[in-house]
Specification:
By secondary structure, this protein is an alpha/beta fold. The chain is 22% helix and 20% strand. Among the domains are: 157 residues, Leucine-rich repeat, LRR (right-handed beta-alpha superhelix) (Alpha-Beta Horseshoe); 107 residues, 2-Layer Sandwich (Phosphorylase Kinase, domain 1), CATH 3.30.200; 238 residues, Orthogonal Bundle (Transferase(Phosphotransferase), domain 1). It has 19 helices and 53 strands. It has a 21-stranded mixed beta sheet, covered by helices on one side. Strands 31-33-35-37-39-41-42 form a seven-stranded parallel beta sheet, with no helix packed on it. The N terminus is likely disordered.
């Protein structure tokens, strides 16, 4: 957390030498103290200060952090320094603690070898050195630890063979054995005389082990968890060893080189051997060379919850009996050689959440009965030979998030009923024979967050305008169809879009400038169409666009090698005969003839007077027609009206009377919230539009002035007018009079984040972890846009749960810019010099709400983006702990961030468990539970980094948004996310 590394100085070294010399005559307790100090001398970095307390005087070290002593004998029995970010090597002296029973140094950065002196710690019962950078071989002396019950050396860089003596030392009481995720070689370390009958967990995944699975494992009758995946194990599937394992719950044998029985043609003996394992929940055999047919007996393993058989050589048809697995939530048969039709009986598996049968040779139609699997969230039938139409019954799959039907022989139209799959995030129907127009119901799926792929079909008609509703989708691919008409500028509303492919169609007209203005667009391909006109300047001005293809159209004009075009080759513009420019290998533009140039000048001179006259007439007309002028005198009062409304005629005009009718006279029953400057009411207009009306109190109260209220109104109008992002509230219109000022906003059906964090009516209605991370990501993205991408940089100044609204899709939108600051310039370092010139009338306002205000604001500092980062950090800690920053616990001079820093990391266990309960994380999947724990801990760490006392030490919202985006991606696909090792950048 930014603290200096702890190192030992000369005085400590002298004291250490004296302690070691005197250990021969000192008491056993003092001997323990000397061993601890020797261990501490091997620590080269202590950023969390975990060993800092060891400098304090103590006769035995029992009151030092991480140390537990037996009070009767005053000897060290436990050393727990897990997840303290310690660097260094493990000193052999630590194993001279003869009474040590528990040693946990996991989750640090220790390097070097495991000392052979480990065999001296004969009292050890629990040893965890996992998640470090330890190298070398495992000492054979570890076999002397005959009291060892728990051993975890996973996730290091250990090499060599595993000593057989660890598991087979004659009197082993070992129950947990984890050497996973290393580089260990050789065979599984058991011999025929091994009697480790207490073993319950063997985890050896992700090593380089080879050979067959030893038959002696059948003696381990208490085994519950066997994980041998991702090694080089060979031979037939080890059937016989499982017949005597009634407690087996998790069996992972994937990514090895196992084969089936009888020359890799029979899988039935293996599945029959699991009949006695009545507790078996998860079976993973993926990524082997298994041949043969899937036997009917698989349907007898009724306790199974997940089964992975993908990436094998299994052939034949899918047995109907597999539908007997009614508890199954995951069935993965992808990438095999299955053929025949898909049994409609699979719909009987009502608990199924993920069904993957892609990359086989299945034929026939998709069973319409699949619409009965109400819990289905992922359906992947891609890369088969399926025919017929997409069933209308898919409209019943309300939980469906990913639908992958690409690379089949499907025909017919896209059913409009797919638009009822309101949680759909990915829709891929590419490489089929689907025809007709793209239904507006499907094109308007606002839930799509990842991609829409309808490419390589026979679709006709126009590009639907409803695509503009996909303001969260990352990629759209409609290439290789027969689409016609113009390219709709409304695609510029797809704010999150990064990849757009409309190539190989029959599109006409000009390229809309709005698409080039998309803030995150990285790749665009409109080649092989009939588009014409000049390429808009917004494409060249884009700071994100990296890959583009405009070939084989009818574009014209000059293309310079500047901006986004500076790294684009001429091949991106082939087949446009009227294009020219300075890009290398492109045809150079010719100079215009002098006569033509003269004619253009004369025409310009004639046109200017005419335009001036026309402009004056229009201005005069606008003054007469303007309903509410910018400056209007009413009796003795002069008030400034909303400049945004006087300039932006696109906003609808709504009168005060209409608002009164919509809110039932601003009745108390319509009141949904109150703030510093007024109240918020819900209402419904005559056209059935649900609205929220923020009415400002024009009569000052509580120390506010009419000027500050007016400035707040003007400021919020300015910000809502200038900013445009999917995670910021959008303005419908305003109503402004000297005695009445109101903002009209869309009504958010799911209320505010505050409503969900602290529900009153239904305490059971809580957010789940996926929604929680999604909301945090939405808020971070919205704030990053305000700080870094908005036309005018904005500091919100009042970020808190009640100012975060949730729409019908649970997408978070930041709102309430009443005290926000507009900051000129793009450089944060210069913001402090510009803020005061933006709205000086707000300088006297408190920058936020109590508990969320950055500490530097209390010292008179100007509002800055780093103040918003602090508020966001408080928000994360509040979400995790379920405690408001104004809680009674923090009223005694402390704060929520300071309190959390005192809990981190030793006392976080109860906080994490409480968060798991609060956000309904009750999964029986151990991996999912671990993943959930990791995510909550990541949120805590990001919150603590964001709330550091020094603004300079805090990260930017861009960095924060990126980190939380990785967490969000991690929830969807853990294996494909790589987290950076470095901490959040403050640049």
């Amino acid at each position: 957390m930014g603290q200096p590394y702890y190192t030992f100085y000369n005085s400590d070294l002298i004291f250490l030498i004296i302690s070691i010399i005197s250990c021969h005559v000192a008491s056993p307790a003092r001997s323990d103290r000397a061993s601890l100090l020797s261990f501490a001398s091997g620590v080269t970095a202590d950023p969390t200060g975990a060993i800092a307390s060891w400098r304090s005087p103590s006769p035995d070290g029992c009151d030092w952090a991480g140390i537990t002593c037996d009070e009767k004998i005053n000897r060290v029995v436990e050393l727990n320094l897990s997840h303290k970010s310690l660097h260094g090597t493990i000193s052999p002296a630590i194993f001279h603690l003869s009474k040590l029973e528990i040693l946990d140094l996991s989750g640090n950065f220790f390097s070097g070898r495991i000392p052979s002196e480990i065999g001296l710690a004969i009292a050890l019962k629990e040893l965890s050195l996992s998640s470090n950078y330890l190298t070398g071989t495992i000492p054979t002396e570890m076999g002397s630890l005959r009291e060892l019950v728990y051993l975890n050396l996973g996730s290091n860089k250990l090499s060599g063979e595993i000593p057989t003596s660890i598991l087979c030392n004659g009197t082993s009481v070992l129950q947990y054995f984890d050497l996973s995720n290393n580089s260990l070689v050789g065979k599984i370390p058991v011999d025929d005389q091994c009697e480790a009958k207490e073993l319950q967990y063997i985890l050896l995944w992700s090593n380089r082990l080879e050979g067959k699975v030893p038959p002696v494992l059948s003696n381990f009758t208490k085994l519950e968890w066997l994980d041998l995946e991702t090694n080089f194990l060979t031979g037939e599937l080890p059937s016989e060893i499982f017949r005597a394992m009634p407690h087996l719950t998790f069996l992972y044998l994937s990514n090895n080189r196992f084969s089936g029985h009888n020359g890799n043609s029979d899988l039935e003996p293996f599945f029959a051997s699991l009949a006695n394992s009545t507790n078996l929940k998860e079976l993973d055999l993926a990524g082997n060379d298994l041949g043969g047919e899937l036997p009917e007996i698989v349907g007898d393993l009724s306790s199974l919850v997940q089964i992975n058989l993908d990436r094998n050589l299994i052939h034949g048809s899918i047995p109907q009996q597999i539908s007997n697995l009614v508890n199954l939530t995951l069935l993965n048969l992808s990438s095999n050689r299955l053929h025949g039709s898909i049994p409609s009986e699979l719909s009987r598996m009502s608990s199924l959440e993920r069904l993957l049968i892609s990359n086989n040779s299945l034929s026939g139609q998709i069973p319409s009965s699949f619409g009965n699997m109400s819990r289905l969230g992922l359906l992947d039938l891609s890369r088969n030979r399926l025919s017929g139409t997409i069933p209308d019954s898919f409209a019943n799959l309300v939980q469906l998030r990913r639908l992958l039907l690409y690379d089949n022989h499907l025909s017919g139209n896209i059913p409009p009923s797919l638009g009822q799959c309101v949680n759909l995030e990915i829709l891929d129907l590419s490489d089929n024979g689907i025809s007709g127009e793209i239904p507006g119901e499907v094109a308007g799926l606002t839930s799509l967050k990842l991609y829409l792929n309808l490419s390589r079909n026979l679709l006709t008609g126009n590009v639907p305008l409803e695509l503009s509703k996909m303001d969260m989708v990352l990629a759209i691919d409609l290439s290789s169809n027969n689409l016609s008409g113009g390219l709709p500028p409304q695609l510029g509303s797809c704010i999150a879009l990064e990849h757009l492919n409309l190539s190989n169609n029959a599109l006409e007209g000009q390229f809309p400038a709005a698409i080039g203005s998309l803030p995150y667009l990285k790749e665009i391909d409109v080649s092989f169409n009939r588009l014409s006109g000049k390429l808009p300047a917004t494409l060249q001005e884009s700071t994100t666009l990296k890959t583009m293809n405009f070939s084989y159209n009818k574009f014209s004009g000059n293309v310079t090698n500047k901006g986004a075009f500076s790294s684009v080759a001429a091949s991106s513009f082939l087949g446009n005969e009227r294009l020219c420019g300075s890009i290398e290998a492109m045809r150079k533009c010719r100079a215009k003839h002098a006569r033509r140039f003269l004619i253009e000048i004369l025409l310009s001179l004639l046109a200017i007077p005419m335009l001036c006259i026309l402009g004056c007439l229009l201005m005069l007309r606008s003054k007469v027609a303007c309903r509410i002028p910018v400056l209007r005198r009413n009796d003795d009062y002069v008030g400034y009206e909303d400049e945004a409304m006087s300039e932006e005629v696109k906003y609808p005009r709504i009168s005060r009377r209409q608002l009164v009718e919509a809110t039932e006279g601003f009745s108390s029953s319509s009141l949904v919230g109150s703030g510093r400057f007024g109240h918020v009411y819900k209402g419904v207009l005559k056209d059935k539009t649900a609205i929220a009306v923020k009415v400002l109190d024009c009569v000052p109260s509580g120390g506010e002035t009419s000027i500050s209220i007016s400035e707040s109104f003007k400021r919020e109008c300015q910000i809502l007018k200038r900013t445009r992002h999917r995670n910021l509230i959008k303005i419908i219109t305003t109503c402004s009079r000297p005695d009445f000022k109101a903002l009209v906003l869309p009504l958010m059906s799911n209320g505010s984040l505050d409503d969900h964090l602290y529900p009153i009516d239904d305490p059971k209605h809580r957010l789940d972890l996926i929604q929680l991370v999604g909301i945090c990501s939405d808020v971070a993205e919205g704030m990053a846009y305000l700080h870094h991408h908005a036309p005018v940089r904005v500091v919100h100044c009042d970020l808190k749960p009640s100012n975060i609204l949730l729409n019908e899709k649970m997408t978070a939108l930041v709102t309430d810019f009443g005290i926000a600051r507009l900051v000129g310039g793009s450089d944060e370092s210069s913001s402090s010099t510009n803020e005061s010139s933006s709205y000086t009338s707000t300088d006297a306002l408190l920058c936020g709400s109590v508990g969320y205000i950055a500490p530097e604001y209390g010292l008179g500092k100007h509002a800055s983006p780093k103040g918003d980062v602090y508020s966001f950090g408080v928000l994360l800690l509040e979400i995790v702990t379920g405690k408001r920053p104004t809680d009674q616990l923090f009223r005694a001079g402390s704060s929520l961030p300071e309190w959390m820093k005192r809990q981190y990391p030793d006392r976080l266990g109860p906080i994490v468990e409480e968060a798991m309960t609060r956000y309904a994380i009750r999964t029986i999947d151990t991996f999912d539970r671990k993943m959930s724990t990791d995510i909550i801990l990541e949120l805590v760490e990001i919150g603590l980094i964001c709330t550091q006392h020094s603004p300079v030490a805090r990260p930017t919202m861009l960095n924060v948004a990126h980190e939380i985006g990785l967490l969000k991606q991690y929830l969807c696909s853990p294996a494909n996310v790589v987290f950076p090792e470095e901490q959040l950048s403050t640049n």
